[in-house]
């Protein structure tokens, strides 16, 4: 594993690092993107901090070694060391591209003002957004240039299957593996993504520059 993108491409293809309980430290793929990616019995810390500091700090954590990299004590130490902030640990899912056209009517937004799109633009590059009747879909380049999806369904349009239609449509628009980050407590969203064929592959904490929004 030479870069984080190498890891992500392999995971999207179903090839995971060995479940050996180890932690791999890799350079940040960009000044924006730093964090911790936890896979099955293997963790990748992507940061420009000294790898020796990372390993030394992990060894000092009073925790099961398999859980140390996602323990509050290590993550707090990493945030303090980098001077960054974080929101939450997300479940990470990936879906393969799908052929065909979306089954729901979508209209691409040229000047989107939707809060979900504004949120995506703070964290991703090249964001494109589409509106459906009752929802919005956004795609953009996030961590290590991977293509990421986010959706939002209006309150009055929920419980009608629109969320599943949107995240399925995203796979048809993507043309490459498509990544999603979902807060584990958002069980409804997790079910929607899994029902649309996205596979859970790990957990991730992103370290953000500046104050969280």
Helicity level: 25-40%
- What structural class should be given to the helix and strand makeup? alpha+beta
Number of strands: 10
Largest sheet: 10 strands, mixed
Distance between the termini: 32 Å
Which of globular, elongated, flat, extended, rod-shaped describes the shape?
A: elongated
CA-atom Rg in angstroms? 18 Å
Low-confidence spans: pLDDT under 50, at least 5 residues? none
Average pLDDT figure: 92
Q: What's the tally of helices?
A: 6
Protein name: GNAT family N-acetyltransferase
InterPro entries: Acyl_CoA_acyltransferase, GNAT_dom
Domain N-acetyltransferase: 76-213
What is this entry, summarized?
With 213 residues, this protein is of the alpha+beta class. The protein is built from 6 helices and 10 strands; from the N terminus they run H-E-E-E-H-H-E-E-H-E-E-E-H-E-H-E. The chain has helices at residues 4-12, 51-60, 72-82, 115-123, 162-174, 187-195; strands at residues 22-26, 34-39, 42-46, 90-95, 107-109, 125-132, 135-141, 147-153, 178-182, 199-207.
